[in-house]
Design goal:
heterodimer, A: about 500 residues, alpha+beta, Uridine Diphospho-n-acetylenolpyruvylglucosamine Reductase, domain 2, Uridine Diphospho-n-acetylenolpyruvylglucosamine Reductase, domain 3, Alpha-Beta Plaits, 5 domains, five-stranded antiparallel beta sheet, about 35% helix, about 20% strand, B: about 425 residues, Vanillyl-alcohol Oxidase, Chain A, domain 3, 2 domains, eight-stranded antiparallel beta sheet, 16 helices, 19 strands, about 30% helix, about 25% strand, globular
Chain lengths: ~500, ~425
């Protein structure tokens, strides 16, 4: 198990795999390996020692077993769209790329199930389910390219998880390869499988508990009616207040999104989405469900917007207009590139009621530090995506932006929120975990890791800033320190 | 030094009585810690002395699973029963594990909020107070309305827990959207108190619907499959889709609709009309739309027994039927209902999610019960689901081992490793859970 030269381990893995896998799946050329050096978070780059393009679950197991034999770390990667460096490779490890596992095995509307390989693209599931009247509800903005395997690893959300929940609520069963190379099924096709909910714990474990090789997904009935509306406000305060009023009215919209003036300006420059000119904030609300219900809810939303001083209110008349409204929102991240050469996409969560205060404080930080921050957020669940703008060519600008970015996370934690709502901790935020959790919390979470991966080979260095050693008998209470039942000592 | 004296330094402790037995296993003492800190001290002491601990809320589901190997200490959560926070604007609440669900419902109601959990076990004998929040989490208690709101495991946002060695830890948080760290809340939900003592739970709340309506139908056996197939696809967005079938009678199907005033009436009328059509139930008399805005469980019971859980009626509570949790793929519900009824089981549950409960009366012969469990398990395995014998009369339990109780458990070897990490000394409810963990 002891490797003095880490490269020797990868060499041994490669020798093993050459006997078991076709040569075309083994990427050894440095230039080719370099193309896998980062995921959607390009700020971090590490060239993996070996890349394996797997073509079956058995091949995944072969790779993981070889890594386990030679004590070599491995990292799984789907489409590589993650924004927290969750698929950042290990320099002395193997990158297992699942994007060739693209078979959509089954779509069964009568059971509301689809069975897919991990490399299947998120949107492809919905496209396949649509003729039967169903879709796959989790819809991260990257849904046209991100893979189901990645969604499972990150417990992906999206604009519509306010009503429909995250990936964890839409996965019934997974075939996984555990870090010792065993192929295990978690869950059953029906919910409530007997035993511990390892399925629920695996979803969102960011590739640290193993590699999913097949997923049974829950499909959701396409709603009878969908109505999308857009309102312009003078400030994010007003838009935030309307959000609270909508929720307080007992309405659970499919989505409630807010963009601030800077984000609107960027979107306008990039895609000419026709948002209200000069608005301090734009609110997008989507309602879905039975037509009679949606119609009534839309009336209430319209009234609430008017009461809160909406400068403009429009409702999409058809699917094309709906797409038009969403265009600005969905392109917001990329659009910011039009108004700033560089930017950091942040992902934090605050209790919905803290939104106005947090936004004001963020504005203060931004002004104080001279760093512009554009805000796009899933207002319904308090999930902020501040875009911290900077120009890396300017001296110290990158550092200032990173500092502001970190201060925003502190703000989220101080208000009882989270350092990540949907992008994951990955490599990027492991150092922030101690701001949200005590050492005992992190140690306890890692007990799960010790159960799955005592050698710590699956995606090491992600989520947790300090790996827990699993070899030690963790936290054994020493009997000698305690009085015995029969002893004379008293507590 | 007696157990009581040793543990008495950590929290309130009293000698156990006959009523503190856990599924026939006598208990040593009953400890009632008042905080996570006291729980921590208690658990440290118990671990140090190799004592077995069973966590108890109201005890309404304490017999679910296998009887524990030993019960030195019953850990009551009643000392941690407060509402810690109800963040109204955020639709989130945090409460101690000992919080009764009925009290929580009352406390949340004035804000028009609720934790969408249907209490399926109102408790036996003197203690008919229903489940506590901790007990609901321990058993992943989820009833008919999980169709819309999700099972309890999806409503748990955060937990505070105490490990067997006394470590106090927290996972998750107080916001609905949060992916920081492993979701130990899901791991704890449904773990039957065998991994850690959950002392506090943060849950997602839902606004109470302004109006609720029901549509009920009596469905001839041969039409059950098409009726259910129609209902799982309905565009009326029901929050309940339950089936209730007693051997030898027509199946009863209940649909619950919640929403804004007027909308539920129109949806109920539409659904009743659809169901009356010749291809489905085929008779308008067999379909009833019930109007009241707010229907309590008791009121529904008068209309259709399916709304009341089979073992929560007064007669059943006093007894101890064999209670199975059976699951199936959606298209298999009608077949499962038939198999269950063919073996004398009454079956009730959500046809919308494929999780149901089947019961046989206490008087049923042991051989009959074992045969029924095997037959139903064969059916659920074929239908992509599982069969778990949650509870049974002692004679039946004695004839079922861990495998007979829980059936095939995918991932059991990993579960053993998880148990070994969280509770290496097997302090918490040893033997109660899958694989004899």
């Amino acid at each position: 198990m002891t490797q003095t030269d880490p490269r020797a381990g990868v060499g041994a893995v490669l020798r093993d795999l050459r006997e078991r896998l076709p040569e075309h799946g083994l990427v050894t050329d440095p230039a080719q390996r370099e193309t896998y050096a980062c995921d959607g978070l390009a700020a971090y780059r590490v060239r993996p020692a070996l890349v394996v393009l797997v073509e079956s679950a058995d091949q995944v197991a072969e790779v993981v077993r070889a890594c386990s034999r030679h004590d070599v770390p491995f990292v799984a990667r789907g489409s590589g769209t993650g924004l927290s460096g969750g698929a950042l490779p290990h320099a002395d490890g193997v990158l297992v790329v699942t994007s060739r596992l693209r078979t959509l095995h089954e779509v069964r509307p009568e059971d509301q199930r689809a069975v897919v390989d991990p490399g299947v693209v998120n949107l492809a599931v919905s496209r396949a389910a649509e003729p039967g009247g169903y879709y796959f509800a989790p819809d991260p903005s990257s849904q046209q390219i991100c893979s189901v395997g990645g969604n499972v690893a990150e417990n992906s959300g999206g604009a519509h998880c306010l009503k429909y929940g995250f990936t964890a609520g839409h996965v019934l069963s997974l075939e996984v390869v555990t870090p010792d190379g065993a192929q295990v099924t978690l869950g059953t096709e029906a919910p409530d499988a007997p035993g511990y909910d390892l399925l629920g714990a695996f979803v969102g474990s960011e590739g640290t508990l193993g590699v999913a090789t097949r997923a049974t997904l829950r499909l959701t009935r396409l709603p009878e009616d969908v109505r999308t509306c857009l309102a312009g406000f003078g400030s994010t305060d007003e838009a935030g207040a309307v959000t609270s009023a909508i929720i307080a009215a007992g309405i659970v919209p499919a989505a409630i999104e807010i963009m601030d003036a800077l984000a609107v300006e960027a979107a306008e420059a990039a895609v000419s989405c026709g948002y209200p000119e000069g608005a301090g904030a734009v609110l997008v609300v989507e309602l879905d469900g039975p037509a009679v219900e949606v119609e009534q809810e839309l009336d209430r939303v319209r009234r609430l917007c008017a009461e809160h001083g909406a400068v403009e209110f429009r409702t999409a008349a058809d699917a094309a207009e709906r797409a038009e409204i969403w265009k600005g929102r969905k392109s917001a991240f990329a659009a910011v590139g039009r108004i700033s050469p560089d930017y950091i996409v942040q992902d934090g969560v605050v209790p919905r009621t803290s939104l106005p205060e947090v936004l004001r404080e963020m504005g203060r930080i931004s002004a104080e530090r001279g760093v512009r921050v554009a805000n796009v957020f899933h207002a319904g669940d308090g999930n902020l995506h501040p875009l911290v703008l900077f120009d890396a060519a300017q001296e110290g600008a990158t550092e200032r932006a990173e500092e502001v970015s970190g201060m925003i996370l502190d703000l989220c934690v101080a208000h009882g929120g989270s350092i990540t709502g949907e992008h994951g901790v990955g490599a990027d935020k492991a150092r922030y975990m101690p701001r949200m959790f005590e050492p005992a919390d992190l140690d306890t979470m890692q007990l799960l890791r010790c159960a799955f991966d005592p050698a710590g080979l699956a995606n090491p260095g992600k989520i947790y800033p300090t790996p827990r050693m699993c070899g030690e008998r963790p936290r054994v209470v020493h009997a000698a320190d305690e009085p015995s039942v029969d002893g004379a000592e008293v507590f | 030094m007696s157990l009581e004296e040793v543990l008495g330094a950590t929290c309130a402790v009293r000698p156990a009585g006959e009523e503190d037995e856990v599924d026939g296993v006598p208990a040593g003492v009953v400890a009632r810690p008042a905080s996570a800190q006291e729980t921590s001290e208690l658990m440290r002491a118990c671990s140090a002395h190799g004592l077995a601990v069973v966590v108890r809320g109201h005890g309404s589901k304490l017999e679910w699973g296998r009887p524990p190997e030993r019960v030195d200490v019953v850990l009551e959560t009643g000392g941690m029963a407060g509402l810690v926070e109800h963040a109204r604007g955020d639709l989130v609440a945090t409460a101690g594990a000992g919080m009764p669900l009925t009290r929580l419902r009352h406390l949340l109601a004035d804000a028009g909020h609720e934790l969408v959990v249907d209490d399926l076990a109102v408790g036996r004998g003197a203690d008919a107070a229903g489940s506590t929040l901790g007990g609901a989490v321990a058993t992943n208690l989820s009833g008919p309305r999980r169709l819309r709101a999700g099972p309890l495991r999806d409503l748990v946002l955060g937990v505070r827990l105490v490990l067997a060695d006394g470590t106090v830890a927290r996972a998750g948080g107080k916001v609905v959207k949060n992916v920081a760290g492993y979701d130990l809340g899901k791991l704890m939900t449904g773990s039957f108190g065998t991994l850690a003592v959950v002392t506090e739970v943060t849950v997602r709340l839902h606004p109470e619907p302004q109006e609720v309506r029901q549509v009920h139908a009596l469905v001839p056996r041969e039409r059950l499959a098409p009726v259910l197939a129609h209902l799982v696809r309905t565009q009326t967005a029901p929050h309940v889709l339950d089936v209730h079938a007693v051997p030898g009678a027509d199946a009863q199907v209940s649909v619950g609709l919640g929403g804004s005033p007027g909308s539920t009436r129109r949806r109920a009328a539409r659904l009743a009309a659809e169901l009356s059509s010749p291809g489905l139930v085929g008779s308008a008399e067999a379909v009833v739309a019930v109007d009241p805005e707010r229907v309590t469980v008791e009121e529904i019971t008068h209309v259709v027994p399916s709304a009341a859980e089979p073992w929560s009626t007064a007669e059943e509570v006093a007894r101890r039927p064999t209670l199975l949790r059976v699951t199936t793929r959606l298209s298999g519900t009608a077949e499962l209902v038939q198999v269950a009824n063919d073996h004398g089981l009454t079956i009730t549950g959500s046809a919308g999610v494929g999780v149901l409960r089947a019961t046989l009366p206490e008087e049923a012969q042991v051989e009959t019960v074992l045969g029924a469990v095997m037959a139903v398990r064969a059916a659920t395995t074929r239908l992509g689901g599982s069969t778990v014998a949650l509870d049974a009369p002692p004679a039946v339990k004695a004839s079922l081992d861990a495998e007979g109780t829980w059936g095939p458990v995918p991932g059991l070897e990993l579960m053993r490793r998880v148990k070994a990490q969280f509770d290496p000394g097997r302090t918490l409810a040893p033997g109660r859970f899958v694989g004899g963990l």
